[in-house]
Write a structure and sequence with these properties.
Distance between the termini: 56 Å
Number of helices: 5
Largest sheet: none
Helix content: over 70%
Order of helices and strands: HHHHH
Number of strands: 0
Shape: elongated
Length: 97
């Protein structure tokens, strides 16, 4: 039970950070569109993994869904880091004096 609670606490750590970053980088008139572009696909994508996980567990007693989910999450985090490592929101950019 402790592991399940810890996982649920850590599983969406990037969501507030990602939302805040998107809102800082995107201009105010485009923020609603940017929020929907980043949130809707994540919501839609959450419907398919339970089906795939059920199929994998039905065909094997090994925890393939956990291994695959962990690898995908690590890959996702590393790709985000690589893509946005040098991008800064406007308020963090150096100003010329």
């Amino acid at each position: 039970m402790v592991c399940l609670i810890a996982r649920s606490l850590l599983s969406a750590m990037d969501a507030p950070l990602r939302s805040s970053y998107v809102m800082a980088v995107v201009s105010p008139p485009e923020r609603a569109a940017a929020a929907s572009v980043t949130n809707v696909p994540r919501s839609l994508a959450s419907a398919l993994p339970p089906i795939a996980a059920g199929w994998m567990l039905d065909n094997s007693t090994f925890g393939w869904p956990l291994i695959i989910a962990g690898v995908l999450k690590i890959t996702y985090d590393l790709l985000l880091l690589r893509m946005f490592r040098h991008v800064r929101p406007p308020e963090e950019q150096p100003t010329a004096m």
